[in-house]
């Protein structure tokens, strides 16, 4: 137990220092709390995030905490991953590319007691990152107006979860999470002529709150070698209790004057209730197929926004829409016990669709379509080959009528360490 405590303490210190968060360059991240993270891990990113009906003894399935009860009692599982992406932005006849890379998550899972699995880790929750500008001529004058948009930040999620097998085939679980983060968004309008007049609005907020998620799984072998698993999840919605600030300034270089005005909105942001269900079918040790459905009830949530009619900064409804995500994926292993590596590799595939949770100028934001392919490559050592190198590639398209279209190609790399740390060796 001392060794286990030291390992978990070290992992927590490392992840807190890393501030695990995936990057984004999307202009859509300026709305709401930013771009929502898929929160998938190395093993299921190749299946485009399939998770709710997956139950395995050698993986950390954070998205359904009931799965923790399946972990092998002899092992300590640690999963860490990073990603890199290139995005093409298209609006009208204009195109531009942007790229970024980030360390994303680290999780761990172990068997604490018979039928009780425990997991701990840090994963991204939302991401904010954008920088763009536009210029236009002011009326018939010779001056130009430049509008610049900048934003950065996001929310991180640290969790402690447990899953318990109530009876053969039936498990329940829960994740208790701490959410923290901040955002800094700004809009600056500059007019150029014989003098410079600049008007800017800066939006800031710090978030410190909690999150509760619950899961259940039922697994049954209906036919020899044919196993079905059903999973369901529920995430509790609540107000985050943060205060949002808008600082408005106006400066004139000709008169050397600057005016400042600060307005705040209390209880500015909230997270919605989330419902999910998934099913998977396992054929022996060769083929897995699954399907997930998830609904986030964003339409009932409010957020801070500037009123276009009077310029007031206030909390209002109508900024969000209910978000539905559908995912289909699978995995194929030619021969798990083969002496040839290529036949022991896990070949993964997946596809998903997600409706938007944000509204842009009163209209629905971009819909998301994505497909992915991945590999789970066994890492052999002198004792076993249960650790895996997970590599996947994902293409995602985000688009809405008369708005920017984003095409992103993302490469994910993760390592699942699954070693027999708790196995006692017998000397003869």
What do you see in this structure?
The chain is mostly beta strands and about 425 residues long. It has three helices and 23 strands. The strands form four sheets. A 14-stranded antiparallel barrel has the order 2-3-4-5-6-7-8-13-14-17-18-21-22-23. The radius of gyration is 24 Å and the shape is elongated. Mean pLDDT is about 90; it is low at about 15-20.
Describe what is shown at a glance.
The chain has 428 residues and is mainly beta. It has helices at 2-18, 42-45, 341-344; strands at 35-36, 76-91, 94-113, 116-137, 144-167, 170-192, 196-223, 226-235, 238-239, 244-252, 257-265, 270-271, 274-283, 287-296, 303-306, 313-316, 323-332, 346-354, 359-360, 363-364, 367-379, 387-399, 405-419. A hairpin with a 4-residue loop joins strand 10 and strand 11 (257-265).
SSE layout:
Blueprint lengths: L1 H17 L16 E2 L5 H4 L30 E16 L2 E20 L2 E22 L6 E24 L2 E23 L3 E28 L2 E10 L2 E2 L4 E9 L4 E9 L4 E2 L2 E10 L3 E10 L6 E4 L6 E4 L6 E10 L8 H4 L1 E9 L4 E2 L2 E2 L2 E13 L7 E13 L5 E15 L9
Antiparallel strand pairs: 1-4, 2-3, 2-23, 3-4, 4-5, 5-6, 6-7, 7-8, 7-10, 8-13, 9-12, 10-11, 13-14, 14-17, 15-16, 17-18, 18-21, 19-20, 21-22, 22-23
């Amino acid at each position: 137990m001392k060794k286990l405590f030291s390992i978990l303490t070290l992992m927590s210190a490392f992840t807190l220092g890393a501030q695990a968060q995936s990057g984004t360059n999307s202009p859509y991240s300026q709305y709401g709390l930013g771009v929502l993270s898929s929160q998938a891990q190395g093993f299921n990113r190749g299946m485009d995030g399939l998770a709710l009906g997956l139950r395995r003894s050698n993986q950390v399935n954070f998205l359904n905490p009931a799965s923790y009860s399946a972990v092998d009692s002899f092992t300590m599982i640690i999963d860490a991953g990073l990603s890199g992406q290139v995005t093409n932005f298209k609006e009208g006849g204009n195109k531009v590319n942007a790229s970024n890379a980030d360390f994303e998550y680290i999780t761990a899972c172990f068997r604490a007691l018979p039928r009780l699995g425990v997991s701990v880790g840090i994963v991204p929750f939302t991401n904010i990152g954008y920088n763009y500008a536009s210029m236009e001529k002011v009326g018939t004058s010779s001056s130009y107006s430049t509008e610049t948009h900048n934003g950065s930040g996001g929310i991180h999620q640290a969790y402690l979860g447990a899953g318990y097998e109530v009876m053969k085939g039936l498990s329940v679980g829960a994740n208790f999470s701490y959410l923290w983060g901040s955002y800094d968004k700004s809009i600056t309008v500059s007019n150029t002529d014989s003098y410079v007049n600049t008007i800017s609005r800066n939006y800031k907020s710090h978030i410190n709150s909690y999150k509760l998620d619950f899961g259940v799984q039922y697994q049954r072998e209906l036919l020899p070698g044919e196993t079905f698993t059903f999973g369901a999840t529920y995430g509790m919605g609540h107000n985050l209790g943060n205060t949002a600030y808008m600082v408005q300034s106006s400066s004139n270089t000709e008169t050397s004057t600057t005016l400042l005005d600060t307005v705040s909105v209390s209880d500015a942001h909230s997270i919605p209730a989330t419902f999910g269900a998934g099913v998977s079918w396992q054929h022996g040790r060769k083929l897995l197929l699954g399907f997930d459905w998830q609904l986030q009830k964003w339409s009932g949530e409010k957020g801070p926004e500037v009123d276009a009619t009077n310029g007031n900064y206030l909390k209002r409804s109508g900024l969000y829409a209910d978000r539905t995500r559908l995912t289909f994926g699978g995995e194929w292993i030619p021969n798990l016990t083969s002496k040839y590596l290529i036949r022991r590799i896990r070949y993964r595939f997946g596809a998903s669709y997600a409706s938007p949770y944000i509204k842009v100028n009163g209209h629905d934001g971009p819909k998301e379509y994505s497909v992915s392919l991945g590999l789970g490559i066994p890492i052999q050592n002198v004792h076993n080959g249960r650790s895996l190198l997970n590599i996947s590639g994902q293409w995602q398209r985000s688009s809405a009528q008369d708005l920017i279209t984003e095409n992103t190609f993302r490469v994910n790399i993760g390592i699942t360490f699954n070693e027999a740390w708790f196995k006692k060796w017998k000397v003869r």
